[in-house]
Amino acid sequence: MKPIGTKARNWLLTFHILSISIWIGTAAFTILLRLFNNHMTSDEGLRLLHILSNKSDQLIYPSVAGVLITSLMIATMTKWGFFKFRWMIVVWIIFFANIIMGATVLSPLKKNILAIADLDGLAALQNPIYIRNHALLNLGGIIQVLLLAFAILIVKLKPWGRKQV
Questions:
Q1: Is 82 helix (H, G, I), strand (E, B) or coil?
Q2: What's the CA gap between 113 and 134, in Å, rounded?
Q3: Closest Cα partner for 75 from 64, 65, 85, 63?
Q4: What is the helix (H) or strand (E) element at residue 143, kind and residue range?
Q5: Which DSSP state fits 2?
């Protein structure tokens, strides 16, 4: 496929950067929000905290879709391709690892702590399952944000050259 022009490529990269920024920013905000979980003093406060955490998905899911769509477009419409460069392969692995971890690990943990909080209210903060799942959710979220930041660093530095054919 013939590469796109400079102006179109710049717009594509702008949307790509905007999408990844929304993803990382929302994920970081959600982690910070969850860290205040243990400081809640009322059922309503805890419920509001979980509602805000849950609403963050309305930003994260479209931004992940935006990153995927723009990544596919960048890979097919520019010189970078899918597997031409080692750094690009690592970035794809990080991207899909994040999606798989979010869908198979973090989402069920989030649903679990929300269900416990709805059932127990403020007493959920004393529930060992809630405490464990909440800690795992925070840890997984931090790992995701760090992996995304690492992927951005790789894209910026492009530390490995072309893959030998």
A1: coil
A2: 7
A3: 85
A4: helix 128-157
A5: P
**Would you call 134 helix, strand, or coil by DSSP?**
helix
Looking at the structure of the chain, the number of domains it has is 1
- What pLDDT is stored for residue 18 in this prediction? 96
Query: Percentage of residues in the chain with pLDDT exceeding 70?
Result: 96
SS3 at position 120:
helix
Q: Name residue 145's amino acid.
A: V
Mean pLDDT, to the nearest integer, of 136-154?
A: 95
DSSP-based three-state secondary structure for 81: coil
pLDDT at 32: 87
Distance CA 74, CA 105 (A): 29
- The 10 Å Cβ neighbour count of residue 116 is 20
Residue 139, domain extent = 6-157
28-60, pLDDT tens digit by residue? 998 888 887 767 777 777 777 778 877 888 999
CA distance 83 to 145: 24
How far are the Cα atoms of 29, 84, 123, 152 from residue 163, in angstroms, in the given order? Answer: 37, 6, 55, 20
